[in-house]
Write a structure and sequence with these properties.
Length: about 210
């Protein structure tokens, strides 16, 4: 077979193909000129009790609790770390239970009581856990410290309430604050500086003082 015949393209074929391509491009351009569908605003009013104070604000329903605290209420003590619930820097207490505030929406907590690091103590009157972190140098850069302290406070309450963890051997007995329990329960709070031993010492001191 003659190779010249295999690849033969007529002038008419080129013109037909070019016209089809131009028509397709014209249609695509027409689609691009169409106005985009309007995004409906989704604003809701949310009322929270934050650190004992009633706070009411309007926010986009897609706003996380973390962003609402930092951006709407200007409580920047709660830190944004990974924003995926993996580092624990954004830990706050909601009705006494610790949560990752980056993984929940503000509108989901309408009427709830939220405690942030600003609500645990003040520079003049620190919470016992805050004092212990200072005493044992439980921080280095300090970025994860608010989340660590909120998590530690709630963690001791969980043990006192008899809530078991993944490493609790006897589920019928009240859990004790062993080293394994402490490290398992605090494993959701990451310290990139590696101050874990000092953090453990601070938590242990507070736990022993409460015993």
């Amino acid at each position: 077979m003659d190779r010249s015949e295999e690849w033969h393209v007529s002038r008419r074929g080129v013109l037909v193909g070019g016209s089809a391509t131009a028509a397709t491009m014209s249609l695509n351009n027409a689609d691009a000129r169409q106005p985009l569908p309007q995004v409906r605003e989704a604003i809701a009013e949310v009322t929270l009790s934050v650190n004992g104070q009633p706070r009411r604000f309007k926010t986009d329903t897609r706003t996380t609790l973390l962003d609402a605290l930092r951006e709407e209420l200007k409580l920047t003590g709660t830190k944004k770390g990974c924003d995926h619930g993996q580092c624990g820097a954004c830990t706050v207490l909601v009705d006494g239970v610790r949560i990752n505030s980056c993984l929940t929406l503000a509108v989901m907590h309408d009427g709830d009581k939220v405690t942030t690091i600003e609500g645990l103590g003040t520079p003049d009157q620190l919470h016992p856990m805050q004092r212990a972190f200072v005493k044992h140098d439980g921080y280095q850069c300090g970025y994860c410290t608010p989340g660590q302290i909120c998590s530690a406070v709630a963690m001791l309450d969980e043990i006192a309430a008899g809530v078991p963890s993944h490493v609790t051997d006897d589920l019928s007995a009240k859990p004790q604050l062993s080293n394994a329990e402490l490290r398992e329960r605090m494993s959701g709070n990451i310290c990139r500086c590696g101050a874990y031993s000092n953090i453990a010492e601070a938590i242990t001191e507070v736990a022993e003082a409460k015993a």
